[in-house]
What we know:
Order of helices and strands of chain A: EEEEEEEEEEEE
Largest sheet of chain A: 6 strands, mixed
Distance between the termini of chain B: 37 Å
Structural class of chain A: mainly beta
Radius of gyration of chain A: 14 Å
Largest interface: A-B, 21 and 24 residues
Distance between the termini of chain A: 41 Å
Strand content of chain B: over 45%
Number of helices of chain A: 0
Structural class of chain B: mainly beta
Largest sheet of chain B: 7 strands, mixed
Radius of gyration of chain B: 13 Å
Low-confidence stretches of chain B: none
Oligomer: heterodimer
Number of helices of chain B: 0
Amino acid sequence: AQSVAQPEDQVNVAEGNPLTVKCTYSVSGNPYLFWYVQYPNRGLQFLLKYITGDNLVKGSYGFEAEFNKSQTSFHLKKPSALVSDSALYFCAVRDIGGAGSYQLTFGKGTKLSVIP
Amino acid sequence: GAVVSQHPSWVICKSGTSVKIECRSLDFQATTMFWYRQFPKQSLMLMATSNEGSKATYEQGVEKDKFLINHASLTLSTLTVTSAHPEDSSFYICSATGVEATQTQYFGPGTRLLVL
Lengths: 116, 116
């Protein structure tokens, strides 16, 4: 079975400072990893994904994430936070070749608040 | 690219009535569509997976006779909440994947259902 952990319910960061939103995962095979962002009363917007290749993945709005196989982590990062980055962030994993392999398993979400 | 729409965005109905929610992929053919339910301040709960022209696969605990899913074309899936009750009030989100190998899920903006 696959699972995702986002250990922080909330992350607060000052505008202009770097931000990190943590994610660890567990799969039996190889993972596809995703980050999505959700603004209030909206659906999820795709930010970035790791499939294979370079461990550092760059995505939308200046976000990036680093895949670390040994630590089974996929933390989301941004060098300089904006107030408009304040939202709910979800990490998700898909276990390639596992049962129900089309399905994503989501973390519980991390609320990011960027303080002006 | 990869835009998914949902209609309506908001619906209020009386207990006992049925409500239909549409999910459309606007610029790609969606081989698979997913329906999720999200409770306040919680993650997404997968309700069912549907492939075009096939019966939907429901997750454990989801009543298929209550939540009717139709995926009649490669760009449209519908979720009908039959005989809605106040406990069905929730935020319903659909997602769709196309033919790309990684099958990234792209999400609709969600539908807020309130059953009085």
